[in-house]
Amino acid sequence: MTDRPLTQHLRPDGNPVFIAEYESNGGYDGLRRALAEKTPADCQQVVKDSRLRGRGGAGFPTGMKWSFVPMGDKAGPGHKYLVANADEMEPGTFKDRIILEQDPHQLIEGMILSAYAIEADIAYIFLRGEYTLAAQRIETAIQECYDAGYLGTGIQGSNYSLELRLHRSAGRYICGEETALINALEGKRANPRPKPPFPQVSGLWGRPTIVNNVETLCNITHILTHGADWFQSLGIGEDSGTKLFGASGNVMTPGVWELPMGTPIREILEQHAGGMREGYQLKGFLPGGGSTDFLTTDHLDLAMDYDVIGKAGSRMGTGTMIVLDDRSCPIGMVRNLSRFFAQESCGFCTPCRDGIPWIVQLLSRFEDGQATDADLVLLEEKARFVGGMGNTHCALAPGAMEPVISALKYFREDFERHIHEGGCCYQHAAGGH
Amino acid sequence: MAQITIDGEQYEVPDGSNVLEAVLGLGLDLPYFCWHPALGSVGSCRQCALLQFQNAEDDRGRIVMGCMTSVSDGMLLSLSDTRAKDFRADVIEALMINHPHDCPVCAEGGECHLQDMTVMSGHKNRRYDGLKNTHVNQYLGPLINHEMNRCIACYRCVRYYDDYAGGTDLAAMGSHDHVYFGRHEDGMLESEFAGNLVEVCPTGVFTDKSLVNDYTRKWDLQSAPSICTSCAVGCNTSPGERYGRLKRVHNRYHHEVNGYFLCDRGRFGGAFVNSPDRLKSAGAKQVDGVFEAINHGDAVARLQELCGTPDGLYAIGSPRASLESNWMLQTLVGAEQFSAGLGLEESAVNAVVAALQDGGVATATLPEVEAADLVIILGEDVTQTAPRVALALRQSVRNEGIEQAAAIGVQYWQDAAVRNITQNARSPLIQLVSASTRLNDVASETMALAPDDIARIGYALADALGGGHAVDGLSAEQSALVSQMVALIGKAERPLIVSGASCHNSAVVSAARAVAALIAEQKSQTRVVYVVPECNSIGLGLLATESLSIDALSALATDGKIKTLLVMENDLYRRAPKAVVEQLLAAVPNVIVLDTVEHATAELADWVFPVASFAECEGTLINNEGRAQRFFPPMEGADERLPSWQWLKPLVEARHDVLRHQLEHIDDVLAALARHVPVLAGAVDASPNATYRDRVGLKVARQPHRYSGRTAMYADKTLHEPKTRVDENSALAYSMEGESRNLPSALRSFVWDPGWNSNQSLHKFQAEIGGTLRGGSAGIRLLKGESSAPDQRVSIPGAFVPKADQWLLTPQYRVFGSDELSSYADAIKEMIAEATLSLSPADAHSLGLTTEDGVRVYSDGFTLDCAVKIDGLVPSGTAGFVVGHPVMLQLQSGAIVSLEKKAGFMRMPDVIVSDGARIHG
To answer: Is B818 in contact with B884 (CB distance < 8 Å)?
Structure first.
């Protein structure tokens, strides 16, 4: 049994693993066995016991999410849906892409098993529009599965049937929000929906729907094959399993690595990412993508576990870190991120739609040397208005404000310097944003 | 009821509502934008934030949106906590980032919900110093002005226009702070309910174009409670006047009739009162055929002279004139010399009147239409004939989805959630019609048939329900539909039968009456809606139990029996074939026309007398449910226009001694009418009479407290301050003095409350949000569906059999164009589409016609050319013509015509742009 289940069969040359190779590695054995030996309830129990938490960013326990889906007759007439959220648009995040491009069958097998566990009969892969290479490879893999009887009617001689379709996103960050994703799949504006009802009860086309992240779904095959205990044993901290961690920024070797849950941040940054590039010092980092709070050098020895990072005042998010060095302007960085989030607001609710652009405008005043002390007060006030939990319709705006609010906390002297020096002191430094 | 605590005070609020509704219902102020009582909650604007505490120990609380939070017993809330207030001020501040500072030139200013909420939320000082986003505006047709820069993106417009009203050509486009609300390209808004955007939009994005171009602030408008005269539904309206012009018509809330919304014909059609085609003074036709104005005294004398003797004095009343005027006319000439002037629809209208009187089933109120869980429509394209009812029918089909949502604990007001759950699930709505309708998109079943066949299926359904009117020879498809309807009726709790006069076929009405009566035996919540064409069709039907047809009048005239014919508020060309009308008018020595506008009949009159419109006089109308409603004038009748009853008063007094000095004011006329016509006796209670005074003894103000320029507004005409006109006919005054809060609803001219300058102040006057008004429901329903008697009209027609090279003409109504008076309004004129003859695809093919072509209609004695419309639902062998369209007035339902392709026919261009070349391409 491997301790790197997600990446064990990736080819060193980066070429995709298609069905013959996937099967020769033992692929779809787990599916066949589960269909023959386990009921959907059994599958759900194993996943619950594994303590798998969603890998898309929120870290919600997957087994619990599934348990809200009405099963059997309780679901009423009509379809149930499973959706793979492959709309990987979080800034600084490129973990799902590796699997989507190089091992599409791993996702598909995980999806078939997950769909079986919730008795879904239709599944979608909602793929980020720019992932064209992944799209080609997933299409090929889906066709291979239909040809091999892993998809379609009566999968592998069982009574279970599943249709799987690839949907390529027209491209909005908000489509990563599961209810906006569902609206987009229905051909509507990708605005998040009010909750309740949650998608598990009323999702796609008003029917029970589970939306899981790609990495989450990939774990399912391994959990059902090797068991909950095995999966729990993979983590070296509080959480179970492995995680695709990554790092970007001015580190020696940016990349993505499968490591045990609970791996210390220092190990990820110093060992796997190879430390900082020459001439750069670590100033801070966003631990899990563009919508998480900054952590700093004080936090390097924390384990990458959901609750540990949460207690430190940030979020694990996608587990892919964006590294800020000492020669890049933190205000420039958060302005860049805020611009992205302002652009990607769906425009539905006021604090997000009109508040984030104001944040960008204020941050620009700092960068342009026009900021005053009053702007700093206003920036803090507006960031709290936009980012307060419950102030907005969905989690985009609170996420967007995490780097801003934490930058104000950790890099306050930079803001003050911008005011007092009348501009950005980083702009002439090499490598600045 | 639930007990809740707000800022330490205990309140009782209705269970099942949301916190915002509850707070407003208590009379407390909580600002909001995206929520609307008819549209429910989506939580987009975040303005109605308040704090909710978990328990008594929780001293932090959390921000929740009032509109998205269900009321629960024992909940602890704070409106006034600083955090909640600051958050609400922050929301306004954010909304104001891109809102222009153009209030002084904005048509919404002074009745702008955004202004009110900004003041209420306390945002004063601008702190954002960046650039504002700007947008391109669109041409949206002659009714609605578009100024996108003012948009605060509350999403109400698209939620109303698309989700509520079923429109498809207005959308939220773009995203983030560039979200744009408009059409895919410039062009007329397609929905016939677009005008409500003016009131739904909380700021000045969508405004009334005619008001924008002829502008007056709300506080300078003189308004009065009125009734829309554009159709028989009788929507309550609030027309506003300044400088002697009708400036605009706003909705006037009536819980049971029109709720929050009007149709565009009602909102914009009233502008006919400003038309240059209005008759201004009395005229006598000279030998050269030209009318010469005669002064008022001469006019009265001449009228008395002409009508002095009852011999040979005949009159034609009007379904668009008030009860009072019709009764005076009938009283003048005597019932046996009176024609109701209903024309083409007469037999069907009379069948409706009989069904309302003795059908034994109550007419649905507006909330009851919306609550129906099964709708069966026999022979009405309701959107064209009773638009407001169709808008309610659109809501009824949502009940299936609302139930589905309730099953998983989602309340009906959670609008987005309910729609997500519902998807395409709809309650059944079955239409039996003669062509495609504007409800096709929500109908579960549409079968198109010739009118006689609609009646046959109705009778067959009645038979299947145990009614005993066996119908032979139904097709298999027709029988299957009957079985399907029987099954659906079995499951329904609140079935609604809709029918009416628009097929010009009384058998259709009788069949609907039979069906409704039989269902009502099983289901106590069974309701009916009967549609009739005009605002007082029912009143006239009740008044004129005997009536001469126009054919009969024509025969009498030809025999020399008619010396003088009074035609009151009626264009006969819309009632009878041209040849009959011309024969009648030519044979009568003295033709007198009293009317508001100059029309073809007036052209042929010997004398014309100008009549006050609905905006210039009082009157009582009976709507399609048998509800008597009063309308009051916002403006004084200009020039020499009098209400018809006043022109007739001296004549009636001269003729009937007992009435002498009994008809001074309209209240007297109504009282006399009530004494003489028992079925209408209740109409006197339609509103308080002229003696009503408020608690301090004042009459009811037509003008808001801030009415300005009173002493100077006519300075261009006279330097003297004009004397305030005394209104002797009603309890309303041309004044700003008087109470505004505790008024009977029938007398409320406008809504306004301190801090609530827009029509959103309405909730201050409702007993509960979206419920009845504190001042009671205006008007009084005279026909309650309690009386039941056998239908004398039952007769099952034979099946329609198409014949080669012959077409049966079937009537089709259009919201714009079929109604007479609204067609004189400038904006409506632009909305009237080309006259078309609707044919089935097979028939069009056999005639060699495509949609580009014209068709020539051959009938008895005339030919007529018009455009062809190919409609997949039109039954072969029938041809639908547009009722009331000027081009098609000669066509009569039931006539058999032959058709031929018209070579070289030029269709009208699709779009007329009135205000600048803004159409692309």
So the answer is: yes
Q: How many residues does chain A have?
A: 433
Nearest to residue A288, comparing CAs of A402, A172, A169, A192? Answer: A402
Q: How far apart are CA A322 and CA A337, in angstroms?
A: 11
Cα distances (angstroms) measured from residue B555 to each of B560, B562, B581, B587, B622? 9, 10, 11, 9, 31
ipTM of the shown complex? 0.95
> Contact, B618 vs B630, CB < 8 A?
yes
Q: Which two tokens stand for residue B93?
A: 């501040």
**What does the pLDDT read at residue B909?**
72
Q: How far apart are CA B449 and CA B16, in angstroms?
A: 44
Asked if residue A353 lies in contact with residue A347, where contact means CB atoms within 8 angstroms, the answer is yes
Amino acid at position B176, single letter: H
Whole-Å CA distances, B24 to B41, B67, B91, B697, B761:
14, 11, 19, 30, 10
| B235 within 8 A of B262, measured Cβ to Cβ | yes
The phi and psi torsions of B33 (rounded to 5 degrees) equal -130, -55
Q: Read off the pLDDT of residues B443-494 as tens digits, 9 standing for 90 and up.
A: 999 999 999 999 999 999 999 999 888 999 999 999 999 999 999 999 999 9
First to last CA, chain B: 59
Best mutation site among B54, B176, B400, B403 for testing chain A: the one with the most A CBs within 10 Å?
B176
Q: Among all chains, which residue has been given the structure tokens 């129906």?
A: B372
Percent of chain B with pLDDT over 90: 91
Closest CA to A178 of A201, A209, A207: A209
Q: Does B126 touch chain A (CB under 8 A)?
A: no
Element (H, E) at A67: helix A62-67
- Low-confidence stretches of chain A (pLDDT < 70) are 1, 428-433
How many of the other CB atoms lie within 10 Å of CB of A85? 27
Residue A347 in contact with partner chain B when CB distance is under 8 A: yes
From the CB of residue B149, how many other CB atoms can be counted at a distance below 10 Å? 16
Q: What does the alpha-carbon distance between residue B185 and residue B170 come to, in Å, rounded to a whole number?
A: 10
What's the CA gap between B893 and B812, in Å, rounded?
9
This prediction's pTM:
0.96
Distance from the Cα of residue B405 to its chain's centroid: 31
Could you count the other beta carbons within 10 Å of the beta carbon of residue B412?
16
Average pLDDT of chain A to the nearest whole number? 96
Structure-token match 């001020």, residue found: B89
- Measure the N-to-C terminal CA separation of chain A; round to a whole number of Å: 44
- Interface check B89 vs A, CB under 8 A: no
Locus of tokens 């420039």: A332
Contact status of A370 with chain B (Cβ, < 8 Å): no
Q: Tokens at residue B825, please?
A: 């309004």
Task: Dump pLDDT digits (tens) for B77-102.
Answer: 999 999 999 999 999 999 999 999 99
Pairwise CB contact (< 8 Å): B176 & A385: no
Pair of tokens at residue B328: 């005076």
In 3-state terms chain B splits into helix, strand, coil percentages (rounded to 5) of 35, 20, 50
Residue A233 is inside which H or E element, if any? helix A228-234
Task: Give B88's contacts in chain A (Cβ within 8 Å).
Answer: none
Beta strands in B550-681 (DSSP E): 564-568, 590-595, 607-610, 619-622, 627-631
Which residues does chain B have within 8 Å of residue A349's beta carbon, measured at their own beta carbons?
A: 43-46
* Rg (alpha carbons) of chain A, rounded to whole number: 22
Partner residue opposite A354 with nearest CB, options B42, B177, B425: B177
Calpha distance B153→B136 (Å, rounded): 15
Other Cβ atoms closer than 10 A to B82: 9
How many whole angstroms separate alpha carbon B47 and alpha carbon B191? 29
In a 13 Å sphere around the CA of B20, the CA atoms on its Cβ side amount to: 25
Report CA B760 to chain centroid distance, whole Å.
20
